[in-house]
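so i finally got all the pieces together for this one. its two components total, 766 residues if u count the protein bits. some of the lines might not be protein, just check the labels. i wanna see the whole assembly predicted at once instead of chain by chain like last time, that was a mess tbh
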Amino acid sequence: MEKVYITGIGQVAVGEHWDQSLAALSSKAIRAALKDAGDPQPEIVYIGNFLASSISHQANLGALVCDAAGLHGLEGTTVEAGEASGAAALHMGYLAITSNMADCVVVVGLEKMTDMVGDEIEAFAAQSGDTDFEGMQGLTPNGMAGLLMQRYLDQYHAPCESFASFPITAHANGVNNPFAMYRKNVDLDSYGKAPMVSVPLSLYDVPTFADGAAALVLVNRKLLRDGQKAVLISASEIATDTLAVHDRADPLAFDAVHISTTKALEKAKLTRDCLDLFECWDTPSIYGMLSLEAGGFAERGRGWQFATLDNLALTGRLPVATLGGIKAHGFAPGAAGAYQVLDAVQQLRGEAGRNQIASAQVAMTQAISGAAASVITHILRKM
Amino acid sequence: MEKVYITGIGQVAVGEHWDQSLAALSSKAIRAALKDAGDPQPEIVYIGNFLASSISHQANLGALVCDAAGLHGLEGTTVEAGEASGAAALHMGYLAITSNMADCVVVVGLEKMTDMVGDEIEAFAAQSGDTDFEGMQGLTPNGMAGLLMQRYLDQYHAPCESFASFPITAHANGVNNPFAMYRKNVDLDSYGKAPMVSVPLSLYDVPTFADGAAALVLVNRKLLRDGQKAVLISASEIATDTLAVHDRADPLAFDAVHISTTKALEKAKLTRDCLDLFECWDTPSIYGMLSLEAGGFAERGRGWQFATLDNLALTGRLPVATLGGIKAHGFAPGAAGAYQVLDAVQQLRGEAGRNQIASAQVAMTQAISGAAASVITHILRKM
């Protein structure tokens, strides 16, 4: 099987880009990634996007993005897996290289939330859950996360501040990331005083919707140049669970996280101890917590004891959100899975600046859509 | 590169399935396809869908469809390329097998139009064109096709009835297909009297939106059983053009058809003469015509002389729409590209009943989205 290397990354800062279209955002990220990779000639572009159809009334992004980026005539296709779409597009790029269909593929995670404003946005975001049985009844993503957090607190008698480590860590790491939307620290005191969004979920437990585009250039061995800074994709694994949470025997189990993580580690022939960092789905913070447990990093019901500030810090046992995570980056849903990989690539290249994890060799990234209805895990290695 | 075989097909008849959800439609097609393939255990499901986000407010179909079909935990991802989404999903399935990521993949084209009624449907369908510069100005898919047809008639001094061969052929072939929505003949007289939709485009020149699901089971050599009726995928090629037609030097050129067709024939090491049938994008009929020209089956501007009833018939030089095409099948946009392949598979298996093309060995299928902004060509061979 042909090996797959990431040789270029490019991103626009997540934010409210009122004046920039889907075409403009994606082009900027793609051109930056191609330049970073030494301007190879890609043959395929995969676009990870969640909501352009509902929010921007635009589908067929394959043609739109190729055209806008000056990549005329190329294969261009959209890949959708809810909020994990960016990671799903990377998975397809991985397949295209391993299958020898292409020597060079561009992957871009893309989301434009500000083409619409108001309550509708929250309703659209609920499309990653079960519309008929959840969304239609008014259950939004934050509503679902709040229910699961309440269940967690009740079932495990965990204190509310158990979840604070995720946003505090993410915000601390976001301070040094010029592409992060929020670049200020949050402490336990302000976490405790934050207004409630969906009890017991507070403002710091949930992501902020925004626009974004993050691109990656993938090549095979043949196109890899000597001395080029490259990152190997050791595994790319997708798993699904029931779409509706009420269909699960155990709502806190996050089975798809377990399946996806286990398969990825097996494929990469690695154990959890080998990971130097884990770009987990850090927000809603309850999802970060459940992914640590389902992923086997902490025992069931004991994640809150594992997820201390010390353990999750850049120098900790399992650094997460190392350049701000989704919480401090801002949340461009269909792009988030790609931003996670960009952050991991920067760590493995030793380009994470003041957030650099010393001698980082192996990183795992994990994108979650819905209440872990789809989970996509990638394992990356420094070359 | 691992070879890819289609060993199972399953479909629901295209129609107005008011009482059936996305989950129900896809499950029926998938279960039928798996049964047809001898019930192998798939590892991945790719869903081709165009408009579920806008029409059914449901994304994350990967989890929905896997769950509904009883395929718990599998990789499930949505692939979107406008009206060509079903073919795009097949392309991804092809990649997953050739890359050795999976031994068995299920592909399903899926569309549920009747979750919404009224004018909005036409506006949503326009999402496969350029929303900012075409759709937003009121240019619908039928509007665009009408403009291109007018241009064709003017530029080449072709008679209006030049296009009649497409719907007449499709309807004639649909009569014997139990899965077709329209099972009655149309003649030149009724074609000439049909009400106009977008002058000079009449009712018989355009497709009818409806619900549908069509599934395919793909396996590699290892899972192919002796004596199993299988069809080889010899090529799967996607190409894009500018999304907006006004950005093209020649609006009648359909460059993406040319690129996709040429690449597919090269990959399959075949010439056009080798094709026993061509499941072309037969409606809007102008797109059928332009795809014959751009695909190299007829000279530029002479397609209308080539596209006679005799030439396109089951016994003709280039049989098209052999089981009713999109026109008689009914048009479930995201599923149409998959239905085309199902029809071709039936021909190659010798299961096309009264529409059987004698000793059919090689078939080409071609799905078009927007005004040929994305084009996906597959070449299939009898085993």
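The mean pLDDT of chain B is 97.
The longest strand of chain B covers residues 5-15.
anyway lmk what u think
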